[in-house]
Amino acid sequence: MNQTETKILNEGGVTVTSHRAIFPSATYAVSNITSVMLRQRDPDKSWPHLFLFVGSAILLLGGWLLSEGMGTDSILPIFLGGGIAVWGYMWLKSLKPSFLVFVGTAGAEQQAFESYDKAVALRVHEALNDAIIQRG
């Protein structure tokens, strides 16, 4: 068994060596890690969908008022509904999933790392797997 500690990853506040995995919130001995999992957490999109729906409904109401000859009374709902719908759409497009790295130990499975960058989460996941393999 290799007794020298070799650095496998040092990125974004995470250091993984052949003996230890150091995260901002906790440090794990690699010999105690039994499994490593990568998961994706999708953001809650219910509020942006609600804004999009309500804004579209107000926009349609303004269009109906315009078609009924209401004149300037229909301008406010058209702009207000359009603004709310665009806001909801932009909010929806800005939401990104987060990628979580979980480590399993004899005691429990715990979230060790989270990133919005999938490539970073994959590197942490691979480094932990490499550390487990190197430890034997």
Describe this structure as you would to a colleague:
This protein is of the alpha+beta class and 136 residues long. It has two domains: 7-42 and 96-135, PH-domain like; 46-94. The protein is built from three helices and seven strands, in the order E-E-E-E-E-H-H-E-E-H. The protein has helices at 46-67, 75-94, 118-135, and strands at 7-11, 14-17, 20-22, 27-29, 33-41, 98-105, 109-115. The strands form two sheets. A four-stranded antiparallel β-sheet has the order 1-2-3-4, with helices on one face. Strands 5-6-7 form a three-stranded antiparallel β-sheet, with helices on one face. Strand 6 (98-105) and strand 7 (109-115) form a beta hairpin. Helix 1 (46-67) packs antiparallel against helix 2 (75-94). It is rod-shaped.
Beta percentage is: 25-35%
Question: How can the largest sheet be summarized?
Answer: 4 strands, antiparallel
Mean pLDDT: 91
Q: State the CATH class of the largest domain.
A: Mainly Beta
Question: What is the gyration radius calculated from CA atoms?
Answer: 25 Å
What pattern of helices and strands is seen along the backbone? Answer: EEEEEHHEEH
- List low-confidence stretches: none
CATH fold category name of the largest domain: PH-domain like
- From the N-terminal CA to the C-terminal CA, the straight-line distance is 7 Å
Helix content: 40-55%
Strand arrangement across the biggest beta sheet: 1-2-3-4
CATH architecture of the largest domain: Roll
Count of domains: 2
Topology, number of strands: 7
Shape: rod-shaped
Structural class of the helices, strands and pairings?
alpha+beta
Number of DSSP helices?
Answer: 3
